[in-house]
Task: inverse folding
């Protein structure tokens, strides 16, 4: 018996097409120049907003300082009224305490001057409870 004829695989007529062996990666992202331009643009935008915010902060600071300057006479007057009230209370208490001492002049200054000398905290609070002096000296510091 005769062996069957074997058909061998052959290349197609004209041959196979070219083999694609190079890397063909898709372009990813922006180019270097466009990234550089975006960086410079964001930098300029940041500087612009920073300058605007600094101007606004300066305007708010000036407004706050003007408000403080406007309120300063009122606050100073309140402080002076409180000081004079305490001095009057101290003189009344001194008159009660020293009424039996001959030759004692109530309210006589220990300073040898005609100028006004603002009293210290100790002079204002020496006839009151120590807690008042501590409250005036330290204020709200114990709560902090």
Result:
């Amino acid at each position: 018996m005769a062996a069957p004829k074997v058909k061998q695989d052959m290349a197609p007529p004209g041959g196979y097409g070219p083999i694609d062996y190079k890397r063909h990666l898709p372009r990813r992202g922006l180019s270097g120049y466009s990234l550089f331009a975006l960086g410079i643009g964001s930098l300029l935008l940041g500087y612009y907003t920073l300058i605007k915010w600094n101007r606004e902060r300066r305007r708010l600071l000036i407004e706050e300082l003007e408000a403080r300057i406007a309120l300063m006479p009122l606050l100073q007057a309140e402080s002076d009224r409180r000081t004079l009230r305490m001095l009057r209370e101290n003189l009344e208490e001194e008159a009660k305490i020293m009424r039996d001492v001959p030759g004692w002049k109530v309210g006589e200054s220990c300073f040898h001057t005609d100028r006004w000398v603002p009293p210290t905290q100790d002079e204002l609070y020496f006839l009151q409870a120590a807690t008042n002096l501590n409250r005036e000296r330290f204020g709200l510091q114990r709560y902090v």
Observations:
- The mean pLDDT is 88.
